[in-house]
Design brief:
2 copies of one chain form a homodimer. Chain A contains 11 helices and 44 strands. By secondary structure, chain A is α+β, with helices and mostly antiparallel strands. In chain A, helix 2 runs parallel beside helix 3, helix 4 runs parallel beside helix 5 and helix 10 packs parallel to helix 11. At the A-B interface, helix 5, strand 27, strand 28 and helix 6 of A face helix 5, strand 27, strand 28 and helix 6 of B.
Chain lengths: ~750, ~750
C-alpha cells in the first residue's frame, strides 16, 4: 500500500553551510555522520582507549547527506525521515524544501511536484548546537532540545552525535491514502468496557473505509464501515477487554486497531495499524501520606508517587535507562531486545528514560509494550537552567508535541516527566520556569490520562546516594537509606568496575595495573568525576580491604561492593513499602565501556554481577535481611531484622525462614521463623537475629536465609569480618595516593 | 459610541423550570434573587440574629428575571450580563437564546434578529448546584465552579447566593464596532523599552482605525493608524516607561491604550480603552534556598516564593480577602474603596483572593491597579476534592479562561493560584488532579508572564496557626512561628471578638452576656467551628485571666489577644526575611458580622483594634522585639531580642532604639542600642535585653521601643505579668463550662 524505497546516501563534511563538501563518503542510514567519517578514514573504535578525542573537532562541522531520487511507481512521493540530529535543511537541487531544529520531530515531506526522479536530495546538518563557546560541557546544551549527555557526563565522554539517526526512505502513496489516523480509548474505573475511538482523515478517492479491532488472539472484536473521505470519527466498545499489565502482574495484552481504505471491489488502497493496550494509570497517595504534615504552620502533603495500574498499586522496581550507545543511530531492535531481556530477567517492571539521554526509537517502545516493561519517559532536559526564551520554547513546543504524539499510543509509557533534577541547585529551574509550564500544558492538552511530573525528584522523592560508602560522611549507603523516608527512590546506586575482559579491551596493556588518575583509566571515568576517586572508588575498596594488589582483586572487590550494596538498597526501599513506592536503580546500562560505573550492565550488553544481585532483590517474593552495616568486628553482636517481602498480587503461606551464618567453612543455624500469612503486596517484619561473632580466622561471612517452603525466595548476604581492634571510628579512611 | 440602556427587571420564584412564577417582584440588578424576595416579604436583615435561616429553602428554587426590551435606536442590539449566578438559560419569549453554567463568564448576546422591542427577555436561574443531597456543607460545591464559601464555612453561614450578581444592560452598537480588542506588552529585564501590541478585529464599515497610547499624565506616547477591517495587529515601543509599582515601593503608574474606529470625516464610531501598568513579575528563590536539601537521598529545593517586581525583591505584607458580602451582587466600587483604603493605610501591599470566595467585580481590580495593591488571585476551588470529571472540567475550562481573559490586563494581579489548600488532607487533590493540570495549562497558554501556583500552601509554605494559644498543644502561636522556617506565611491569624457595638446589633439583648454555645453566639461563629471554643476562644481568655465578667471585659481581652498576637506573628515572619518572603494575615474582612473571627475588620467595614496593630507591624521600617511568650511571672528574667526591620527600598541610619519597660505606673530604661546602617530591604538583629521582673502590684507591663531618630518607627508590646506561683506547666488550662 505504501511501498518504501531506500536511498543510497553519501555524506560530506564542510566548514560553511554553502560550501560543497570536498569529498563524498558512503553513509549508513540510520547512523551518524562522524561514524561514516571515521570508517572512511580508518579510525579505530571510538570506545577504545582515548580514540574518542579524535572526534573533538567534528562537532563543529556541517554535514550534508545526499541521495539521488530513483525512478518510482506512480503516486505521491514522500520523503520520510524519522529523526535528523539536530538542526538541518532539506533541499532538492538548490531548492530549500524544509528547515527544522530538533531531532524528535519526524519529517514527512511531500516531494510531488517539488522534486523528480534523477534529482538529488540534500540534508544539510548544522554544527552541534552550543549556547556558549566555553565551558565545553553540558551547559552548552541549555538552549536547545539536544540531549545534554553527549556534551560530556560523568559516564559519557564528550562526543556529540550528528546525522540521520533514524530511518529515512521514500514512500509512494496511492490514489487514496490516510493523512491522519489515531486510535484512542477510555476505560472507566470498573475496567468493564473500553470505549475505542478512531479519528482520521483520508486524501484521494476511495469507495469506503473499514475499521477493525482485533483481540490479542486475532479474534475480530469490532468492525465499522464509513465513507472514506473528509474527517472521520468512529467508535466501538470492547466489553471485558483483556488488560495490559506489566509482566510481573499479568499479561501485557495488545489489541490491534486496523483501518483501511477500500476501492469499489474491496481491494485495500491504504492501511494503518496500531496496537492498543487497555490500562488505567494513576499516581496515588501512599497510605498515611495525607497524615503529614501534622503541625502548624502546615505545608502541603508530599505529591503522590505510588503507581496504580488498572486499580492495583504496584511497587515499581526498575532502573534508569541511559542510551546504550553514544550514537543513537546505531540502536535498533536487536540492541533493545538484548537489553530488555536482561531487564525482564532481573524482575524489573519499569525503566526511567532519563532526560539527559535521547528518547529511543520506536522499536524500544514496541518491545516494552510486548514485554510488559513500564516506561517513565522524560523530555530532553537535564541538569541545566533551560531559559524562558522564546526561540528555545518554540523548539521545545515542537519537540514535546512530537514526542507526545509518537509515544502516546504505547501502553508501556506510564508517566511523562519534564526532565532530570531540574529543581536542584545544579539545575536551578523552578515551578515557574516556562519550559516546564509548557511541558505540563502540552501533556495535559494532548495526553491528559497519563500522569505528569515536572521533574525528578519532586518533593518527597529521593535521588542518591551513588556510593557504597560516602568517605566524607564516613557512612554506608545502607545506613543512609535505613533512616530515610522517601516516597520513592528514583535514583541510587553503587559503582562497580567493569569485568577484566572489558578493561583489557579498552585499556592498553601498559596502563592496565595499577590504575592511576590521568590516562585511559580517567578518560573512562575511573577517576576525577564528581570526586577524585569516582567511579573506581579505590579509597572505598582500600577502606574495607587494602589497596588492591591485582586487577583481578580490584574487579572482584569492587564488584562485590556494587552487588551487595545495590541489593541492600533495593531491599531497603522495598521494606519501606507502602510509604515508599519505587526503587529505580541508577543506572541500568551505559553508552560506552566505563572502567567503573554505577551501571548494572557494561557496554554494549555485558552484565556485571550486580545485575544478578539487584535482580534477586527485585524478585516478587523473597526473604530479606535488614543489616545495619557491611563490615563487622569479631566479638560484635551481629544483628539483622528478618523480613518477608511480597510485591506480588497474590498472598501465600511462605513457610519458614531458616537463618544461618556461614563462616570459616562452617554453617550455623541461628533462627527459624515461621511466618503467618504473607498477604498480597505486603511485607512482613519478623524477628531480629543476634549473634556474637566469634574470633575465627576468616575475613568475611555469609548470612543465609533459606526458605524451604519457597525455594526461589532464599537470600544470601556477604559481609566482612575484621579483627576487633578498630576504634569507635569505623569511618577512618586509610590514606591513598590518588595523584 | 455604545449607548447603554438599563432594563427594568422583575424576578419570580418557581419550583420547576417550566412553571411560571406565581408572582413577579421588583428586582435590583446587580443583586441577588433572595434579597429581592426578602425585601418583598419584609424579612429582617439576614445578618442579624439567626434570620439567615429563613433563606434555607430558597437555594433550591428556580428564579426567573424578566425585563421588556424598550424601543432602541438603530444598530445591533446586545444583551450584556457581566455575571449570572450560577446556571441559567436566557430566552426571548419562548425562544432559548443562550444556556450557561458558570458565574464568571460574561454573556454578550447579539439580539439583532432574535428579539424585538416590546418582547420580554427572561433569565431563568437554576437551583444552587449540589453534587449531593447531604451533608449540607461545602462538599456539595465540589462538582461546580460555584465558590464553596456560601455552602457554609467557619466564618460564613449557609446561604447560597443566586441571581444577576453583576451589571446587565442592553447595548446598541453602531454600523462599525470592535469585536475584539486587547493590548499586551512585553518588558525586557532592563525595563528600558516596553513593546506594546494591540490586537483586535472590527465588524462593519469604517474608514480607519486609530490606536493611541497615553502616558499617566495624559501625554500622547504613540499613535498608529490602520485600515479598520479584519484582524489587525499594531505595535509601538515606549521608551523608559513609567513603571507600575506597589504603593509601598513607588507609584502605580497607569498608561492608557485607546483604539477607535473612525469614519471618513474622522468621527469616532466605536472606541475601546484599557489601562496598562508596565511591570515584570517573577517568583524567585530566596538566598540560601538552593542550599537545601543537603543530604542524600536528595529531594528538590522548595519552590520559589519571593516576589520580584521590576527586578526588585519585595517582602509581601498583606491579608486574605474573603468576599465582604454574602451576596456578591451587593458589592460595588464604594464597598471596595472603603475596604481598600483600610488595606493601604495598614501598609499592606498584597491581598490574597482566597479561592473559597468569588473573584470580585471589575471595580475591585481597577481600584487595586490605582492604589498599588497587589493581588494574588485564586480560582474557585477550596477545601474540596474537585473531580477528574469531564462535565466539571468543561465548566472549569470556560470559567478559568474567562477569569484569565478578564484579569490579565490588570497590573495589580501578580499571581494566579489554583485554589485553597488543595494539597492537604481535607481536600485531597494532588499534582495529578486534572482540574489543576487544566488551570496550569490555561494560565500558561493565555498568560505565561504571570506566575502560577497550583494551590497554597505549596511545599515550604505555611498555613496557620489560627489561635493566639493552641490549648491542646499548650503553646502560643508566637513560639510556633519562632521555630518555623517557612518560605512564606500565607495564612495565619488570631481570632478576636467584634466590638460591643457590633455584638449588640446582632445578638438579642437577652442572649448578650454571658456568651453560651448554641443560639446566636454559635450561629455567628462564637462556638463550635473547628473546635468547641472557636472563634470566641473563651478558654484562651480564661487561661490568661479568668472567665470574663462582662461583655466589655470579654471584648477588651479578646481584642488585646488578637492585636498583640497578630502583630507578633507578622513581625516574626518579617524577622525571618529573606528566608521567608510573605506575611499574609488570615483574614482581612468577613461577609457578615461574626461575633468573633480572625478578621481584622468586622462586617461591613468596621476595623478591630488588631487592624491597627497588624498595620503597625507592616510599616516599612520599625523597631521590633522578638518576645518568647505573652505571659510572664514576677521574678522571671524577661528577655527580648531587639531588631530593626526594613522592607523599604532605601537604606537609612535609624539611630537609637531606647528600650523601656512601663509597669505599675513607672517607666524604666533597660537599654539603648545604636544600630549602624540599616540597609535597603534588610533587617538588623540587635541586642537581647534581659531584666528580672519585679514583685509589683500589677497584672501587665509594656515593652516600649522608642526611636528618637525615626519617630514613626517606635513600637510597643503589652504583656501579662502574673504572680510567681505557677508551676513549670504554663500550659495548664482552667476548666471552663462551654456546654
Amino acid at each position: 500500500m505504501r511501498p518504501r524505497f531506500s536511498l543510497e546516501w553519501q555524506v560530506g563534511r564542510h566548514a560553511r553551510q554553502d560550501d560543497p563538501p570536498a569529498e563524498w563518503l558512503a553513509a549508513r542510514v540510520p547512523g551518524a555522520a562522524q561514524l561514516d567519517w571515521a570508517r572512511h578514514h580508518g579510525w579505530p573504535h571510538h570506545w577504545q582507549a582515548d580514540h574518542f578525542r579524535a572526534y573533538d573537532g567534528l562537532e563543529d562541522s556541517f554535514w550534508t547527506y545526499r541521495a539521488r531520487i530513483p525512478a518510482l511507481p506512480e503516486g505521491r512521493v514522500f520523503l520520510i525521515c524519522r529523526g535528523v540530529d539536530y538542526r538541518f535543511v532539506i533541499r532538492a537541487g538548490d531548492r530549500i524544501l524544509h528547515e527544522q531544529e530538533g531531532m524528535f520531530t519526524p519529517v514527512e515531506l511531500d516531494l510531488t511536484g517539488q522534486a523528480v526522479a534523477g534529482e538529488e536530495l540534500f540534508v544539510t546538518i548544522f554544527p552541534a548546537p552550543k549556547s556558549r563557546a566555553v565551558p565545553a560541557d553540558r551547559s552548552q546544551a541549555d538552549h536547545s532540545c539536544k540531549p545534554a549527555v553527549s556534551y560530556g557526563w560523568d559516564f559519557h565522554p564528550r562526543l556529540i552525535s550528528q546525522g540521520l539517526w533514524d530511518d529515512a526512505w521514500l514512500e509512494v502513496r496511492g490514489r487514496a491514502h490516510f493523512t491522519r489516523s489515531a486510535t484512542d480509548y477510555s476505560l472507566p474505573t470498573d475496567l468493564q468496557t473500553a470505549r475505542l475511538e478512531w479519528k482520521g482523515a483520508a486524501a484521494g478517492e476511495c469507495a469506503s473505509l473499514r475499521w477493525r479491532v482485533f483481540a490479542p488472539d486475532g479474534a475480530l472484536l469490532a468492525e465499522r464501515m464509513a465513507a472514506g473521505s473528509g474527517n472521520i470519527s468512529l467508535s466501538a466498545d470492547v466489553r471485558n477487554p483483556a488488560l495490559w499489565w506489566p509482566h510481573d502482574h499479568g499479561t501485557p495484552a495488545l489489541h490491534v486497531s486496523r483501518v483501511e481504505l477500500l476501492d469499489e471491489g474491496g481491494a485495500v488502497l491504504d492501511a494503518r495499524e496500531e496496537r492498543i493496550g487497555f490500562r488505567r494509570i494513576r499516581l496515588v497517595m501512599a497510605p498515611g501520606q495525607w497524615d503529614s504534615p501534622a503541625a502548624f504552620p502546615k505545608s502541603r502533603s508530599h505529591p503522590p508517587m505510588t503507581l496504580e495500574v488498572n486499580g492495583r498499586r504496584i511497587f515499581v522496581k526498575g532502573a534508569n535507562w541511559v542510551s546504550p550507545e553514544i550514537f543513537p543511530g546505531l540502536l535498533n531492535r536487536e540492541t533493545y531486545q538484548e537489553q530488555l531481556a536482561q531487564v525482564r530477567a532481573a524482575h524489573m517492571n519499569l525503566l526511567r528514560m532519563w532526560g539527559g539521554s535521547p528518547a529511543q526509537k520506536e522499536a524500544f517502545y514496541n518491545l516494552c509494550d510486548e514485554l510488559g516493561i513500564m516506561v517513565w519517559q522524560e523530555f530532553p532536559l537535564a541538569c541545566n537552567t533551560y531559559p524562558d526564551d522564546a526561540a528555545y520554547l518554540r523548539v521545545l513546543d515542537q519537540e514535546s508535541r512530537s514526542l507526545i504524539a509518537r509515544l502516546r499510543p504505547h501502553p508501556s509509557v506510564v508517566l511523562w516527566c519534564g526532565g532530570n533534577e531540574l529543581f536542584n541547585s545544579w539545575s536551578r529551574m523552578t515551578d515557574q520556569s516556562l519550559a516546564l509550564r509548557l511541558l505540563a500544558a502540552n501533556c495535559y492538552q494532548l495526553d491528559p490520562a497519563r500522569p505528569f511530573l515536572p521533574t525528578s525528584p519532586v518533593d518527597g522523592v529521593g535521588h542518591g546516594h551513588y556510593a557504597f560508602r560516602d568517605m566524607d560522611a564516613g557512612e554506608e549507603a545502607w545506613a543512609v537509606f535505613q533512616r530515610s523516608a522517601s516516597t520513592a527512590y528514583c535514583e541510587f546506586g553503587c559503582p562497580g568496575p567493569a569485568s577484566e575482559e572489558v578493561l583489557r579491551e579498552i585499556i592498553p596493556a601498559e596502563e592496565l595495573f595499577p590504575p592511576r588518575p590521568g590516562g585511559i583509566w580517567q578518560a573512562h571515568h575511573g577517576f576525577g568525576v564528581w570526586k577524585p576517586s569516582s567511579w573506581l572508588h579505590l579509597d572505598v575498596i582500600a577502606h574495607y580491604w587494602a589497596e588492591p594488589r591485582s586487577l583481578e582483586e580490584l574487579v572482584a572487590r569492587g564488584q562485590l561492593l556494587q552487588a551487595e550494596g545495590g541489593k541492600g538498597l533495593v531491599e531497603e526501599a522495598r521494606r519501606q513499602k507502602p510509604a515508599a513506592s519505587m526503587a529505580v536503580y541508577w543506572c541500568l546500562n551505559e553508552p560506552w565501556p566505563a572502567v567503573a560505573n554505577n551501571s548494572l550492565i557494561s557496554w554494549p550488553c555485558r552484565p556485571k554481577p550486580a545485575l544478578a544481585a539487584v535482580g534477586a532483590a527485585c524478585r516478587p517474593i523473597l526473604a530479606s535481611a535488614r543489616i545495619r552495616k557491611f563490615q563487622w568486628r569479631k566479638g560484635d553482636s551481629f544483628e539483622a531484622e528478618i523480613w518477608w517481602l511480597n510485591d506480588g498480587w497474590e498472598g501465600c503461606d511462605p513457610g519458614r525462614i531458616e537463618v544461618r551464618i556461614a563462616l570459616a567453612g562452617e554453617t550455623r543455624d541461628l533462627l527459624s521463623w515461621k511466618a503467618g500469612r504473607l498477604e498480597a503486596n505486603c511485607n512482613l517484619a519478623g524477628p531480629t537475629v543476634r549473634w556474637v561473632l566469634p574470633e575465627v580466622d576468616c575475613d568475611h561471612f555469609e548470612l543465609i536465609l533459606d526458605t524451604p517452603g519457597l525455594p526461589g525466595a532464599a537470600s544470601r548476604y556477604t559481609l566482612l569480618l575484621r579483627d576487633g581492634e578498630a576504634g569507635p571510628d569505623e569511618g577512618a579512611t586509610p590514606t591513598m595516593n590518588l595523584g
